[in-house]
């Protein structure tokens, strides 16, 4: 089985609190892409690791600062990312006895193809909110994921590490 899992989920279509899909909601509009995907892949990898009898492993989920603080028009995304973080903490408690660590990386404003669509004036406003004065780069997140996947983080489990440049401190 793979000893390391880095789980990143797609971003669902934004849904404000006062609007929403009909019930039952279509999977593309629900929490499924983020939360259910993270749950299913965690379950599959954890099962394989436990059944292998090998000790150890690292599961790293990508959350979002939006899961901690919310965001206008993204009630479904915020709820799903908060759920991913709770999933990781619960899995950490359940899997620690097998030597399997489970953590969450919580990015803030990161320069990605998604942010490339945002007008520069708006990006400048976001960057001004960050104490470090800039948006994060994908490498900033990747480095934290690599650390959590490595044996250098062997005593870290159930943690949520923010990669936000100090946003919200």
From TrEMBL:
Residues 11-27 have a biased composition (Pro residues). The keyword Ribosomal protein does not apply. SUPFAM superfamilies: NAD(P)-binding Rossmann-fold domains. GO terms for molecular function: oxidoreductase activity, acting on the CH-OH group of donors, NAD or NADP as acceptor; quinone binding. Residues 1-10 have a biased composition (Low complexity). Signal peptide: none annotated. Gene3D superfamilies: NAD(P)-binding Rossmann-like Domain. Residues 1-30 are annotated as: Disordered. InterPro entries: NAD(P)-bd_dom_sf (IPR036291), Sc_DH/Rdtase_CS (IPR020904), SDR_fam (IPR002347). Keywords: Fatty acid biosynthesis, Fatty acid metabolism, Lipid biosynthesis, Lipid metabolism, Oxidoreductase. Pathway: Lipid metabolism; fatty acid biosynthesis. Pfam families: adh_short_C2. PROSITE patterns: ADH_SHORT. Belongs to the short-chain dehydrogenases/reductases (SDR) family. This is Estradiol 17-beta-dehydrogenase 8-like. It comes from Notechis scutatus (mainland tiger snake).
């Amino acid at each position: 089985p793979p000893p390391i899992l880095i789980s990143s989920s797609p971003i669902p279509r934004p849904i404000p609190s006062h609007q929403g899909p009909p019930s039952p909601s279509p999977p593309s509009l629900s929490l499924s892409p983020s939360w259910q995907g993270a749950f299913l892949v965690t379950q599959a990898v954890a099962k394989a690791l436990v059944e292998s009898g090998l000790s150890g492993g690292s599961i790293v989920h990508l959350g979002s600062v939006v899961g901690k603080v919310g965001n206008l028009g993204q009630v479904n995304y915020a709820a799903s990312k908060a759920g991913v973080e709770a999933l990781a903490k619960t899995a950490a408690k359940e899997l620690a006895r097998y030597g399997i660590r489970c953590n969450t990386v919580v990015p803030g404003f990161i320069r990605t193809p998604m942010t490339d669509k945002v007008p520069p004036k708006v990006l400048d406003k976001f960057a001004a909110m960050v104490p470090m004065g800039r948006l994060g780069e994908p490498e900033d997140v990747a480095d934290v994921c690599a650390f959590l996947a490595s044996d250098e983080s062997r005593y870290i489990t159930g943690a949520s590490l923010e990669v936000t440049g100090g946003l919200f401190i």
